[in-house]
Each structure stands twice: as C-alpha cells, then as structure tokens.
Amino acid sequence: MVVGSKSLVELFKDRFEANSGVVHVVEEVGDAVGVFEDIFSSEDVGRFAVARLPQRFGRFFAGLDARDVGDNVAEADVGITWADYGIADTGTIVEITEMDRDRLVSSLPRIHVAFLKKDRILPRLEAMAEIIREKLSEKTLRNTITFISGPSRTSDIELRTVLGVHGPHSVHVLVFTRW
Fold first, then answer.
1. Residues 6+ apart with CB under 8 A from 138
2. How far apart are CA 176 and CA 114, in angstroms?
3. In angstroms, rounded to a whole number, what is the distance separating the alpha carbons of residues 59 and 157?
4. Model confidence pLDDT, tens digit, residues 25-35
5. Per-position b or e across 70-100, b if 16+ CB within 10 A of its CB
6. In the chain, what are the domains?
7. pTM score, two decimals?
8. At 147, which helix (H) or strand (E)?
9. What is the distance between the alpha carbons of residues 159 and 57, in angstroms, rounded to a whole number?
10. What are the C-alpha distances in Å from 32 to residues 27, 141, 172, 176?
C-alpha cells in the first residue's frame, strides 16, 4: 500500500526515526543476523531477554556473543520482541501481550529490538480500533496493548527532552519485507 508517494514501510521508517528510533529494513530472517551483530557490538551487549518470537528464530541467537538471561529480564542489556503491528502515520509499533514478563522485555532493558513483518504495518491508528476491540473481547487471562514510538522520553521543567530515563534509551525495529 502507498500513502502519498511513500510505501507504508517508508512512511513507518520516516516517522519512527523522527522519534529517535532506528528502523532496519531486511528481506528475511537470515539477513537480520548482520544487523543484530552490529547492534550487539555497537551497544556493548552482553545479556539479552527474548519474548514471543516465532520458532524459526530459535537458532538465530546461538551465534551471538551474549547470553540469554531467561526470566531475569532486569539483568538484560537488550530486550528482543515480536511486534504485532506497526502504524505507519505515527511510526509506532504495537505489542499485544498477556504476560507481564513479555511486556517487560520491551520496556525494562536499556535497548529494545523488535521484529515486525511488513504486511502487519497499518496505515493509521484508526485501523487498530477493530483489532483492539477483538483482543479486549477474547477470553484470555488479560491483554496488555503497548504502543511504542521510539525510545523512552521525558522532559524536565525547562522542557529539555531526555531519552531512556524510564525505559529503553535505544529502540530498533527490524522490518521483514519477505517472510
């Protein structure tokens, strides 16, 4: 889909990066390994936590020079998650979780890396309304819907914006164009 002269991926990338996030557009899982190695080495990552990734990513982390902290999310340098949706016009990823641990993986470590399929990028926030309505009506434990538009940010009384005070100071999204 194209919005104006830009594809949804291009618009998502522009808007997410305007909010101080970083978007890496890759074709498939194998292409993401180099991007991951660059993130891990440039950000000095030694420990990571993973939440809600498809089975095909199981071997993906075996070659990394870092260790998985399991349920000890507070020890992780980077949290790696699966984004359920992206919203192009706001540059936002959406994660729908049932377990607190899964939500913490995107909000507690100093770096957050999310995987997103190209076909899950919606043009506008309004397109999420029906999806949210369905999720809230499901008979699950509970659903937490988190909207992430870049690193955590806060401002002081002098309106100076500071990134990463109450969450990740760096957020990367890997958009897969082919699955």
1. none
2. 11
3. 47
4. 999 888 888 89
5. eeebeebbbbbbbbbbbbbbbbbbbbbbeee
6. 2-176 (3.40.50.10420)
7. 0.88
8. strand 144-148
9. 41
10. 8, 33, 12, 9
